[in-house]
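Recall from the previous lesson that a structure prediction takes nothing but the amino acid sequence as input. Here we apply that procedure to Planctomycete cytochrome C from Gimesia aquarii. The sequence below is the only information supplied.
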Amino acid sequence: MLRSCLLSSLGFILLLNPAFSSESTKNTQPTKAGLQFFESKIRPVLVNECYECHSVEARKNEKLEGELLLDSKAAMLKGGDTGPSIIPGDSKNSLLMAAIRHESFEMPPKNKLSKQVISDFEKWIQMGAPDPRSGKALEIQKKEIDIAKAREFWSFKPLSQATPPITKNKTWGKTSVDQFILSKLEAKGITPNERANRQTLIRRVYFDLWGLPPEPNEVEQFVNDQSPDAYEKLIDHLLAGQHYGERWARHWLDVSRFAESNGYAFDKDRPAAYHFRDFVIKALNEDMPYDQFIKLQIAGDQLGPTDYMSQAATGFLAAGPFTSQQTQKERERSRYEQLDDVIHTIGTATLGLTLGCARCHDHKFDPVSSRDYYRMIAAFAETGFQDYQHDRNPEKYKKEKVAFDITHKPFIDARLKYEKETLPSKLAIWLEKRPTESIQPKLSEWHTIGPFTAANFENAFNRRNDPEKKVDLKKTYSKGKLKWTPQPTWTDGKVHNTLKGNNSANYLFRTIEVPQATPLDISLGRDDAIKVWLNGKSVLSKKVMGGAAADQDKVKLALKAGKNELLVKIVNAAGPSGFYFKAKDTTPPKKIQTIIALSEADRNEKQKQELLKWYAPHDAGWIELNDAEQENMKKHPKRDLMPVFAARKGGATYNFGADTRKVYHLVRGNSNRKNGLAKPGFLRVLMTADAQEKQWMQEQSEKAKPRHPRVAFADWLTDTKHGAGHLLARVMVNRLWHHHFGRGIVGTPSDFGTQGFRPTNPELLDYLASQLIKENWNLKPIHKLLMMSSVYQQSGLSIASGLKHDPENQLWWRRPAIRMDAEIIRDNLLAVGGTLDKKMFGPGSLNQEDKRRSVYLRVKRDKLIPILQLFDAPDAIQSIGKRNVTTVPPQALAMMNSPFIRKLSENLASRVRADGKKSLEQTVNDVYAISLSRQPTLEEQQQMLQFIHYQTESYGKNPKAGELAVTDFCQLIICTNEFVFVD
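The prediction returns the following tokens.
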């Protein structure tokens, strides 16, 4: 659009500046020169650049943006959603000027106005904005969504009770699916295809369910198996295999925008994100009911707080991009963008609805109000994303803990006995001789050294560098590049963002002197992790990502009399790093001073205990017993913890204060324009009635306790009677159909709204959705129902009746060839070469030549795997329900020239002719059997033999000419369309 919406967001910052008032300068009568200036300089620009989106005509055409009209003087003074666009006589504070200068917005976004035009507008406003256009500003009535009418749209209706229609042809169909398809074909006079041959079928089902080619012996066995249930046994075998989950997980990972890094400029890695991928594979292999599969991804941490699968599932919410480099001002906006990513992904992935389009205003096309949008994201207000430490063996820990408690009890008993029998008398002596002034420690200036770099963050945290062994302020490291540096300007109680180095450690050292043993409370802040030692003894070790701030960690130091050495290690992942330190005042708290001032007789029991508790860390005897207990605590059994990147209540997010865990209704999506607190809720059009919302938000009991909002959201999403369950089922069975047949019954698998395609066979869609629910939401029975059908098993031949009445095959009278996904092309290459590593689960690799299946390759957003990108793998930025399929020259060039492809061709050649003695005829046959699951025709065999002979001659006297020629032949077969397409 050349004339873009000039001021669709002008009202966003009106309330940020009090000068943006609805009161303009005093009106004066425009001069003739002023009116002429408007007509010659201003009106033409408004007409050409603004009216398309900001005029009465734009409103008639439903193109009005920001409720802003610019086609009359009164309308410009009134402005849009939040106030006037111009202030006559004050160009500096007129929002129009900020927009056309591209200072706050970029309006028009595609073609910034020339400097002269901008100067003309500034001059026009300064002269009082003379404008001859008369008429009152149009009162724009906001159009409310008619929910009752909206529920009549096909995808929002309850599932119809569709029954398979009766067809004329009684022999072609094998399942109820065929009756729905055949009925439509017969109505059009189309005859469907016959069954594909067995070689085609076994290759088709293997790639559909496993994403791997069948072995030649498996093809031969199936072709020769004449039993009537041979095909059904093949389907059952593949559905029960572990490779099924690996193949179909890739489809769900697409819609989940799964990645293992943050994205954006620094693209920080998420080493523990792979658990979500493993969850999807395991859940599919177990045939976890789809409604449970969805519930765990929305609220698994609440439904199964100690269960691995439940925790890993919430990686779905956490998979979106996340920038870690931003200013404080940007954090709140980024938080809303994070929540928008969550609800947008949930919408497209599970409901086929673009819910995110309602962020700034009611959805332009679908019945999703902005009110519904903010109530839905409010259900995720408390949700953050971080590594959760999962205990892999809780029973073992429980057993060891019981044994430890028995051996540790004497240490506790000794300290408690001392506190009861000895400490009171020691306190009495101290009270008699206590110093008149509190002991104030003497702190030296800080010294720093670093950065000590490492391969990654974990190594930087765990590696024991020389300063940890012994602090020598005169010693240097890294050939003199690192030395201790005094920091005389550092002030305690202030964050110092001066540390540097990615994946590195910086050390800070100071001494603390006290005349007698005493405790000292200190406050620490760190970015990103910290370790602290006092006199060589560890007192803190914490790894929590986040910027440095006061009071992130609080530690009580047990200082000995004299000089104490304090060593701090700050570990940073990326960017600048900060540190904070403050020693608390050692003067007794006012409450303790009040108790001390009382006589012994006047202190009640509670006051005596409070005084003893405060005094204990000052007493040498108590310190000795407490230290012994703490030393023994080092023998405390350790949990077998494994980090899992997942969603957590109160987990890490963009922290910006008291509103961090709240969601407000925002005016046009602007986090600076709040319009009331949003309470968790759901999409009204997918509830039988508004009053029904309470049944998910509250427990169905006498007390009616409120439920966790994400649990309630998950229940609403899967409720087939009163909630969104019917649409959830429709969308999922359509995805199954899409991946089995190459196109969904609804051609837009992630858009079931008014802008998406209508179903070509709505009765079949509802029937399949009903079957999914009937089958307890298990997906494998639906797979089998589809794959056992004649429509799935038919060949891809073109027939006259089909070409005449349905040339685009909308009614499925043939089974078209489908190009393999990028990951399957790579897996196929590894499989035919005999080098595929079938190890499952665990961390992946960024090396495209890794031998494991492609689903285990790491998805790093700024470093995607080249061969996968070449064949249209998604970028993992947003949910993708339907991949692009391109045919471009670089694909062919890579297959012909890539060293990786050449190596795989050599592997195939070695596999079929390991000893070099096999005849060329048999070699050709074996390559076809392995690569294409069939034997070559006689003509193909002769052509390939001629090719091998020609290539052998081309290598001249090279002793490996024959071997190279066979490799060339193998690469030729790999480069054929048949290798990367499934018929």
